[in-house]
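Worked problem 6 (solution included).
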Amino acid sequence: MIQADVVIIGGSATGLVAGLTVKSNFPDKEVVLIRKEEKVMIPCGIPYIFGTVGTSDNNILPDEGLKNLGVKIVVAEVTTVDPLNKTCTTNIGEVYSYDKLIFGTGSVPIIPDWLRGAQLGHVYTIPKGKPYLDQLQHKLADAKKVAVIGAGFIGVEISDELCKIGKDVTLVEIQPHVLGQTFDDEFAVEAENLLRNRGVKIITGIGVEELIGHIEVSQIRLSDGTDLDVDAVILAMGYRPANELAQSIGLELNQYGFIKADQYRRTSVKDIFAAGDCAEKVDFATGKLSRIMLASTACTEGRIAGLNLYGLDTFSTFKGTVGIYFTFIGDTGFGAAGLTEKQAGLEGFNIVAATFKGIDRHPGKISDAHTQSVKLIVSRKSGVILGGAAIGGKSTGELVNVIGLAIQNHMTINDLLVTQIGTHPMLTASPAGYPLIKSAEIAARKMQE
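Solution. The predicted structure is:
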């Protein structure tokens, strides 16, 4: 038996940050991270291996930080956990004892049971394992016509990347618009227009009935009866928590299959924690269970689990998940945080929505200037910011992170109106026309109507 103080199962975003956090805050503890993969992919970079970065070898999550701190990395699969004796066993027969255990087992792609033909050859998903992705990249080399089913972030980004390397790509989405779960219609339509201009064929409002072929897929049949010829199909229809190990040892799961975990990431079994895609989340604005799976959220939860292993840190509570999303099409960034206008309305919030369109540099003649639109979703009576979105250049990412911070801290429109900002012609919009503050001004006026 191998003795350890803390065992972490899973080596992606959750495992990485949990390991760094535990060893940094409790340097005397022996920390072992057990993962299936020899090399771990950067989750958000996976779509870009097909075009922008060229190979999965350019998208590796580095191990140096863990190793330098003294975290032991074991490449194996944990097959059983004994919570009573506080041990876990791997597929290579090693047994580890633990004082604290962190589940960071992540998620796996969904292959719907109802989709006939999903087991045909040349039908693929986008998991996080490097060997599968390397094989997929090799197999797609000879494919000319590729259908991508599902237009969330993975579907959109894969479609754009495959189109970039010369594939004839059709993106199929049953919802009225691509990215429709994350953005309101006006932002989603702009994303569609950009994708079409870049060569992606888009079919929305129509589902897929079945995949057709003998040994390998040759057509997809849409719900309106249309058949499309294909050489390959990529299913980008979402992910589910990888919960089989947790379920086998009796950890409580919620109705969506996530491991139940409180704000400190404690599970139903003493000394076992869970974080990341496999773990339960509660929406920050509504208090309802959330199915968000993001690497950024996994990092936050991994950090919180690590901080609270040996005593609850009141400064490290997790009051709920603020979903913060990004994608990048061409030279245009899209970002959203918190509730969309549609979601806020469905939840029953009395809101105002305000949008301002400006330029992210000043003057606008600067070479890399980009139009920048900011939308805020605000509670009409209290002025509390519930959500926001932005379209713009590369600064969109940090701008939407600021909106996320405002949501998490229950900031109001009045707080934004007096926010002190720094500006520079080459880096930001004009201080006199800063889109985030200008949209707050519009919201404040609407609240008075």
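Discussion: The mean pLDDT is 95.
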